[in-house]
Amino acid sequence: MKDWLHSVRTLVWKDLLQEWRSKDMLTAMFAFAILTLFIFNYAIELSPVNRAEIASGIIWVVIVFAGTLGLNRSFIAEQDQGCFDALVMAVPDVSAIYFGKMLTNWLVMLFVSVLILPIYSLLYNQSLFNAGFILVLVLGAWCYSAAGTLIAGMTVQTRMRDLLLPILLFPILMPVNMAVVKAAGGILAGAPLMDVQAWLVFLAAYGIIVTTVSIMVFEYVIRE
Amino acid sequence: MTLAIRQIAKSFGQHHVLNSLDLELQPGELLCLLGRNGAGKTTLLRILAGLLKPETGSVWLNNQQIDYAESHARSNIGLVMHQPFLYEHLTGIENLRFYARLYQLADDETALEAALAQVGMQRFGGKPVRAYSRGMKQRLTIARALLHSPRILLLDEPYTGLDLQGSQIFNQLMLEQKQQGCIILMTTHDLSHALPISSRFAFLARGRVSDELTNENLSLENLETWLAEKLAKPLSAQKRAAA
C-alpha cells in the first residue's frame, strides 16, 4: 500500500509538472470555459427568480465540456511516447496509474473552476463563493474525473478518441449531471444543506463506486 | 538463473506471428534475435516484458514461471522499445527521477547523475527532452532501462539514432551487464555493432527460431553470409526447417 501511494504521488507530481510546463489541458479548458461563459452571458438574461437554477446549470455545463477537452489530452503524453508500457512495468500495481491520472484530472478541473467562478460572478453579478456550492462542485468534479479517466484510458488507444470519449462518457454521467445541478441550484436558491443532502450523498456514493470499480478494471482497459 | 521461453504462440486475427516458440537464455548471455520485418521479434519482446499475453506457452525464470501480475517480476525487466518512453516536457534528470521513484528506488541525485554520465549525457540532464535529438533520447532511454538494475534486458533496435560513440558506449554497457550475469535479448539489423557483444544469434521465421549461430570467433562476413542465406530462403522452406 505504501509503495502504491508513493507511485500515485509520483505520477501526480509528474503530470502536474508536465501540465504546468506544457499547459496542454489548461489552455484548452480555460479558453473554452471563458468563451462559453461569454456566450451564455449574451444569450441568457438572468432574473432574480430563475438565477439560482440557471447559474448551477451554466457553471456545470462549462465545467463538464471544458473537462472533456482536458480528459482527451490527459493520456496523450503516455500514448504518443509509448510511456504506458514503461509505466505498467514500473508501478507496483497498474491501478496506481488510474488513480494518479484521476487525481490530476480532478485537480485540473478544480483549478479551472477556481478561475471561472470569479469571472462568472463578475459577468452575472452573482457571488458563487458559497461553501455548499463549492462542496457540490468538488464532489461533481470527482465523479466526473473518476468516470472520465477510465473512459479516456479506453478511448486514447483508438483513432476516434475525440468523438468516442463524449459518446461513452456522457450517458454514464447523466445521474451526476442531475445531482450536481439539483444540489447546486438548491444551495444557490438559499436552501439549507439538509435539503440537498440526498444529492450530496448520491454524489459521494457515485464517486466511491466508480473509483473502486475503475481501480479494479483499469488493468484490463489498458492492456491489449 | 535461466530464462526459458516455452511453446509461446501469438496471433493477431488470422495472422500467426509466433508459433510454439522455444528459446533458452543463460545468465550473462546476449542473444541477438534476427529476422525479416514482421517476423515477430517485437511481439516476442512484448510478451517477455508482460505487455502482451501469449495464447499459449509460458516464460520461466530459474525454473519458476514468471507471474507478470507480480510487480517484482516486472521490475526484474529493463525494456528499450521503438518509442523512447520519455516525457518531452520534463528534463532528462526529471525523467530518470520519475522512473526511479516508480521503481521505489531511494532518492539519490548522485545515482541519477551517474546514470546520465554512463551514457554520456551528464551535460544535458537539465534540458527538456523535447530539445533532445533522436540519438540523445535513445541514450536517455538506455539509461532509463538500466536504472533499476534489471536481471533481464529486452532491447528492440537499441542502436536506432545512436552515433558511433553512442553505439560504443552502449556496447560497453552491455558487456558490463553480461559480466554481472544479466540476461539480454536484443533485436537489431545492425550486425557490425551487435557482433562484438552477442553470445548467440537466432533467426526467427514463421514464428519460430529456425536457426541459431554461436558467436565463437565469428567474423562479420560469415555472419552476413549466414543471415543472407536465411533471408534469401523462401518462407516455405524455412517453415519446413523450423518444423
Summarize the topology.
The complex is a heterodimer of chains A (224) and B (243).
Chain A (H helix, E strand, L loop, with lengths): L1 H21 L1 H20 L7 H24 L1 H5 L2 H8 L4 H30 L6 H25 L5 H28 L8 H26 L2
Helix pairs in contact in A: 1-6, 2-3, 2-6, 3-6, 3-7, 3-8, 6-7, 6-9, 7-8, 7-9, 8-9
Chain B lengths: L2 E10 L2 E11 L4 E6 L5 H8 L7 E6 L2 E2 L5 H4 L2 E4 L11 H11 L6 H10 L15 H13 L5 E5 L7 H16 L3 E5 L3 H4 L5 E6 L2 E7 L5 H13 L2 H8 L1
Parallel strand pairs in B: 3-8, 3-9, 6-7, 7-8
Antiparallel strand pairs in B: 1-2, 1-4, 4-5, 9-10
The dominant shape of chain A is globular
Number of helices of chain B: 9
What gyration radius of chain A follows from the Cα positions, in whole Å? 18 Å
Q: Summarize the amount of helix of chain A as a percent range.
A: over 70%
**Percent of residues in β-strands of chain A:** under 5%
Describe this protein's structure:
The complex is a heterodimer of chains A (224) and B (243). Chain A has 224 residues and is an all-alpha fold. Chain A contains nine helices and no strands. Helices cover 83% and strands 0% of the residues of chain A. In chain A, helix 2 runs parallel beside helix 6, helix 6 crosses helix 7 and helix 6 packs across helix 9. The two termini of chain A are 26 Å apart. The mean pLDDT of chain A is 87. Chain B has 243 residues and is an alpha/beta fold. In chain B, the strands form two sheets. A six-stranded mixed sheet of chain B has the order 6-7-8-3-9-10, sandwiched between helices. A four-stranded antiparallel sheet of chain B has the order 2-1-4-5, with helices on one face. In chain B, helix 3 crosses helix 4 (109-118). The interface between A and B is medium-sized, with 26 and 31 residues.
